[in-house]
Amino acid sequence: MPRKTTGSAPPPVPAKATGRKAAPVAPSDQKEAPAKAAKAGAGKETGARTVMPAKANAGAPKATAPKTGASLASPAPATKATAKAVSSTKAASTTKPRKAPASTRSGLAPPKGLKAKAEAAGLAPGAAKPRRRAVANAAAAVHGRTVTPWSDDDIFEAFSRFERLNPEPKGELEYHDPFTLLVAVVLSAQATDVGVNKATRGLFAAAPTPKAMFALGEEGVAQFIRTLGLYRGKAKNVVELSRLLLEKHDGVVPPDREALEALPGVGRKTANVVLNIAFGLPTIAVDTHLFRVANRTGLAPGATPLDVELALEKRIPDRFKLHAHHWLILHGRYICKALRPDCPICPINDLCRWPDKPI
Ligand code: SF4
After folding, report:
1. Is the pLDDT of residue 102 over 70?
2. Does the pLDDT of residue 159 top 90, yes or no?
3. How many independent structural domains does the chain possess?
4. Start and end of every HhH-GPD domain (predicted)?
5. Distance 136 CA to ligand 1 centre (A)
6. Structure confidence at residue 91 (pLDDT)
7. Domain ends where: 247, 277, 307?
8. Beta bridge partners of 174
9. Shared-domain flag, residues 144 and 293
10. Is the CB of residue 196 below 6 angstroms from any atom belonging to ligand 1?
11. Do 262 and 290 belong to one domain?
């Protein structure tokens, strides 16, 4: 049986693209989630990484220390200290003041230093080495608290463009049926789709059903997935969810959020992915990409993934809901990237309210 895939290929670059090619297809990382979000909405799912754009850093205020070139110092100073003082004074009076970056003017510029930026953006104080991408997503959330959300017309226009560019978005996780999709999504926490697919090809050949997966046991599952992060815990969850499917659902994946979330390793985001892809329900799984895009653009600002999910569900027109999850993930993964968003080729550049986007 041919393998199905979830997610989607990179979205086509719009006609107004400036000759730049979209970034090469990268594996999915829909396991990432902002640190704050992880607290509030990630449930028991693992893999809460967070992300942030280079633009936010680019918008940070830069030191405006005046130049101290010798040409600015008139008669030769008697001492080094005097020379420094003289040249500094001259420089202060002759250096043209810099225009503050947009993010500074709007009061959103993060302070200098990654740790300080992270704390200012609401990440855990004292976090030793926050990821730059986590800081980026947190900055998007800060921006989201100030931005005016899109109008209904803006939303309709944006999704009409996504639909024109990619009418049938497809994914990259390989699966055969709802059970293998569920297992693949559980395994995808803190792993790439490419990595998960490599592991599941052998795993699904050996154990394509809950019964076979349960019989394979933790050690057997672990042997197939040991290339993935947290593989011991994932193997345990996969075997246990297989047992529960057999015990409570006759070995069938239930098309029900509550029942799905009762399975080990399955949180709201995983349940949303399964309900959307396997059962065609208009759910929207908010991963790190959706969270960033919704806040940066003004599409559906929210402090947590759940806030964003509920706002998206409320505001996206029904005709776009089935594919909204994929369109937004792809947009965030390949264009509105955390560290270096490709604003010049972005199909919604004119609608986006990110203050530092290049026009
Ligand atoms: S213009 Fe596009 S790529 Fe740039 S920040 Fe806005 S949505 Fe992201």
Report:
1. no
2. yes
3. 2
4. 187-334
5. 13
6. 40
7. 277
8. 5
9. yes
10. no
11. no
- pTM comes to 0.68
pLDDT digits (tens, 9 = 90+) for 188-211: 988 888 999 999 999 999 999 999
Q: Is 17 among the domain residues?
A: no
Q: What are phi and psi of 148, to 5 degrees?
A: -80, 125
- The three-class DSSP label of residue 204 is helix
66: Cβ–Cβ under 8 A, 6 or more apart, which residues?
Answer: 88, 91, 92, 95
Percent of the chain whose predicted confidence (pLDDT) is above 90: 54
Ligand 1 within 6 A of CB of 295: no
Q: Is residue 89 part of a domain?
A: no
Domain of residue 133, CATH code: 1.10.1670.10
For the stretch 275-294, pLDDT in tens is: 999 999 999 999 889 999 99
Question: What is the best residue among 340, 346, 359 to mutate for testing ligand 1's pocket, by most ligand atoms within 8 Å of CB?
Answer: 346
- Final residue before a domain boundary, out of 277, 297, 312: 277
**Closest C-alpha residue for ligand 1 atom 4:** 343
- Minimum CA distance residue for ligand 1 atom 8: 336
Q: Whose CA is nearest to atom 6 of ligand 1?
A: 352
What is the 33 CA–ligand 1 centroid distance (Å)? 19
Cα separations (Å) of 292 from 33, 39, 100, 134, 258? 9, 16, 24, 10, 27
* Residue whose entry in the numeric block shows the structure tokens 């200098």: 112
Ligand 1 touching residue 296 (CB < 6 A)? yes
Mutate to test the pocket of ligand 1, among 108, 154, 349 (most ligand atoms within 8 A of CB): 349
Task: Report the alpha-carbon angle 222-224-230, nearest 5.
Answer: 45
Identify whether residues 50 and 159 lie together within a single domain: yes
